[in-house]
Amino acid sequence: MKRREFITLLGGAAAWPLGAQAQQPSRTSRIGLMGNLPLRPIESFRRALQQMGYVEKRNLVIEYRFAEGRDERYPGFASELVALPVDVIVTWGTPAAFAARQATTQIPIVLGAIGDVVNTGVVSNLAHPGGNITGFIALNVELEEKRLELLKEVVPRLSRVAVLGNSRNPLNRVNLDTARTAAQRLSVAVESFEVQSSQDVEGALRTITQAAPDAVLLASDTSLLSERKQIVDAMAASRIPAIYPFREYADVGGFIVYGANLSILFERAASYVDRILKGEKPADLPVQQATAFEILINLKAAAGLGLTLPASVLVRVDEVIE
Question: Whole-angstrom Cα distance, residue 4 to residue 2?
């Protein structure tokens, strides 16, 4: 079976200007970083900064704040970072972005990865964001439709899909509306199951299992990543096919992942941080959309579900996990 190589972290790093690595910043910079967990994209961000001359414990301090599945912690984190203060706040996910936006209109905010900014009201104009916010969009709203279409291709006679989402995330309603619109076109019924924190996931999974849908669509929500192993194991045990938005689900045995390459987005976010620290304003830096996407399929999970993947899907897969 042929496998297409998707854009690697090394390839993304090679795209940085050569001069960026040569200049060592002369002062110590302090960055606040808010996200759910210290996952692969965070490491990509750190590595990209290092290539541009920012080295932790030498001329860089990163104040990490991880919510670990509890979105209600973000407002407190944002207030802490503003009080320090930090030079730039970097966020991962919509709840973190909203908390930073509420906490300050002065400190620059770089969205390392966010599902949508216009429909959720974070930024009104991509080309000219204005204010103190800029960054990168994972296009998760648009991808919800494509994820549902992919499920329709791989699950025979798909008619009922459960969507597991986080009601605390402002993106959840936008994503759900998109999925329902796509479901109507595909003649698929969508039922929503919502949690408010990672502690609610176990109960939601029990309810989904009892409902016995034909498949499950995991919402593009970072807090759910805290329980990714529990979610993937529950789907496998119930023999329910599920499609996921982030690569981390594939790392623990998830069936299909379709989403933006967030590591590349965070590498690009590091370049924005560098430019802001050197004097550019967030208002002058356009909000950019993801350009690298990946489909990952776990063959062992497919076998456990009793599914044979059609050739039309396999030719589009970026990585096969055996």
Answer: 7
